[in-house]
Amino acid sequence: MVQVNGTNRRALPPTSYLRIFEPLRAFSDADQRLAVASGRINRETMEDASACAALQRLTRPASDPFPHRHTETFRKLVTTTWDGTVNTLYCPDQLATRTILASEQLDGSMRPQLLELLVPDAARAANALRVDRQRFTDDLAHLHTRTATWGIPFGWLILVHEDDEVDVIEDGEELLASRIYTPLPQALDRVRYAAATLAIHAPEMDLLDELAALSEWLQLFDKESVVELDYGRIAALVWPDDSPHDLRLGIESLAESDMTGAAASYRRLSNRWLAVRQLARAN
Questions:
Q1: How confident is the model at residue 5 (pLDDT cuts 50, 70, 90)?
Q2: Among candidates 227, 228, 222, which has minimal Cα distance to 25?
Q3: Residue pLDDT, tens place only, 51-93
Q4: C-alpha to C-alpha distance for 187 and 75, rounded to whole angstroms
Q5: Which of 8, 92, 112, 146 is the right S-S partner for 51, CB 3.0 to 4.6 Å?
Q6: Helices in 132-258 by DSSP H: which ranges?
Q7: What are the phi and psi torsion angles at 54 (to 5°)?
Q8: Whole-angstrom Cα distance, residue 52 to residue 56?
Q9: 44 falls within a domain
Q10: How many structural domains are present in the chain?
Q11: Is residue 183 part of a domain?
Q12: What is the domain extent for residue 231?
């Protein structure tokens, strides 16, 4: 359990993250140098700085959420294997690319007049001139971070189990984040098993398409990578969270053709996240 000061994080909407941490060898020479330099920065210091920068972008006098001068940063994760081997893994922030993707998602979800207020055409045009096209293309092909606001996609929860390694981050008595870690091969096995079970017993579920996309995404990365499910500020609303356990039981019930058990697991899962969805609509 880690104690930090999370003032900046509390000012942002509750957001969760699914990240892939890869070995240093997975990156270019230039990125390896950036990763090692970033790795000297404490993780929570980096998270606070990231939240502060996001607030500054969102509160500019002229609406412009894009980063102007940004050097790539890398989060660092140190793991120990069963035989005592210590591995250091890295996850690039890819902020410039992720902000463009976020603005494109808004483009299809709100009225043009409101979109122009939040992400003006002038800001988009200026950002297009700043973007490194090759870097953007490379990031799209190898995006290390997925983001969700006011919730956690159920597909992400299938990747982790209740007995995986966990970090809990607190500010005094307030929960700022909970992070679950699992080796990428295990996450891939879990998502494949769940997808195969749904394909046989519940092929009409939307979750099946999500699992197929997650499986394809995980296969892009080094086999010695680690998956991190970061609840972020969502943790304050649901932690301790039994959702991974309920999803696993639901999938196992489907595999055994126990529809009553599967329905009970799904009902517990839905009820747990109902309050979060209601808060999201209220905001």
A1: low
A2: 222
A3: 999 998 888 888 888 888 778 999 999 998 888 889 999 999 9
A4: 20
A5: 8
A6: 133-141, 154-158, 184-201, 207-218, 235-238, 243-255
A7: -65, -40
A8: 6
A9: yes
A10: 1
A11: yes
A12: 2-237
